[in-house]
Specification:
mainly alpha, Multidrug-efflux Transporter Regulator, Chain: A, Domain 2, Leucine-rich Repeat Variant, three-stranded antiparallel β-sheet, 69% helix, globular, ARM-like, MerR-type_HTH_dom, HEAT repeat domain-containing protein, ARM-type_fold
Length: 518
Amino acid sequence: MTGETGTEKRALRIGEVARRTGLTIRTLRHYDALGLLRPSGRSGAAYRLYSPADLTRLLHIQSLKGVGLSLPEIARALDDPAYDAQEVLRQHIGILEERIAQEQNLVGRLRALQGVAEIGWTDVAETIALTRRVEGQVGRFMQAAQEIAGTLRLTLQQLQHLQELRQGVGEDDWESLLTDVLMALEHGVSPTSPEAQALATRWGHLVHCTTAGQPDVAQALGRAYEQHLPTELHRAWTFIAEAMSRRQDGATMTHQTRQQVTDLSHPDKNVRIRAALDLGTARQHAALPSLIGRLSWEPDFFVRENLTWAVVRMGPDAVPPLLELLESPDPQGRLQAVHTLSKIADPASASALSPLLNDPDDEVARKAVFALGQMGNPDALTALLAGVGHPDAERRTTLGNALAQFGSLAVPLLLERLGHPHAPARTHAADILGLLGDPAAAPVLTGVLLNEAEAWEVRFAALSALGQLPGEDADRGVAQATHLDDPKLRAVAQRLTADRARPVDSLQQRLRQRRSGG
């Protein structure tokens, strides 16, 4: 086994860059797709590697974003020698000055209208005042959160995840969520309402992403908010905390359970394994968010398997948060979510798993194939069949085993695939039909085998499949192949004919002979 080169040791993988900078993996991949920041190296395992020069370029990108440049403009500023940055900055200043003038003009008109219209415009003014009040509260909450995070006794890595709370996750971000929470409070929304539950779900997702799925950090922040948020902001925290507690169906934690949740982050993997086993054995549903949070990034294989077992023990309650984890920008999180869902085997999750068949991470895609096969949901058949003939050999093997789980239900659809325009798809379909062993496929496979215009590899796959099928139709198909002009196909057919004519001396038959004294 070869070690890393000196260059690889100095370079960082995409996940490490995300953790150190506070950017999301999705953002870094977006920069890569645009050609704005392409990692300059690859590891021996084909992982993207960012060099110190790449990180310097990333610093320039973020600095230029901060002054209002768009991503295409940033690309030109960094790569086009003829690019006039000063002119672009002058243009942006002009746009901002024009926007400020427009806003000031709008304020003046609204003030004038407020004095004219007694009915209607009062509501407008109150709405504007409410919006400004909420905006101020959001800004103060963000500032307080940053200050509170700075007082916690966290590791350097943990602090790096909390440096930029404004960073969005997918289509959500803290400012938008806080605005919605404070607006809900202004309108008297109950923490038990569906609207509050939706806010709690978003809050939990952002906390999970901001803290890198570390429950100890999330709990420390929660305690700090409870104790140190200013009075005017404390009601927002109380509202969301109550909504989140309702979201957990009123489940409460004992002191022992809280200690076990804390132990999930213990540096000793044996302690983490014991905590997962204890929580799973007791089916502590209140610990489910912590178990899934740890599962999404746990580095040790044996701990992950015990965390998976504990989550599976929670039954259907584990499915919704696992479906949320499928949206994670981190392939490790998606992989663990798919793996765990495959063990729960809830058919209702099949529709959410189907898009992951095309996941950019090969391991996640293969695991999604396996999971859908385990569930046996007929609705997943169409999605799985789209992968027949995939260029990756391991993916083809996984897909064949998955489709085999559907039995005769998959046979007519695979027979249709024998007419696919691409030969690799026809070859793979024939291979899977042999694996299924359904004699109903024999006539069509025989037709493919005897078609001299068909690609050789497809005919060979059809012959091999016939050799695995029972019944007279398959016997006839193999026998007809012994007269083919192609010498290789003819030789294989002759061997298969001889094997099929040989009596089966099975272990069961030998045992019966022994019992009878034969």
